[in-house]
Amino acid sequence: MPSPHLTETAPTPAAHADAGPAEQRGLDVGLLVLRLAVGLTVAAHGSQKLFGTFGGGGIDGTAQFFGQAGYPSPKAMAVVAGLTETLGGLGLALGLLAPLAGAAVFGTMLNALAVKWGGGFFAPAGIEYELLLVVAAMALTLTGPGRLAADSLLPLPRPHRLAHGAGTLLLGAVLAGVVLLLRS
Question: What pTM value is reported for the model?
Answer without folding.
Answer: 0.84
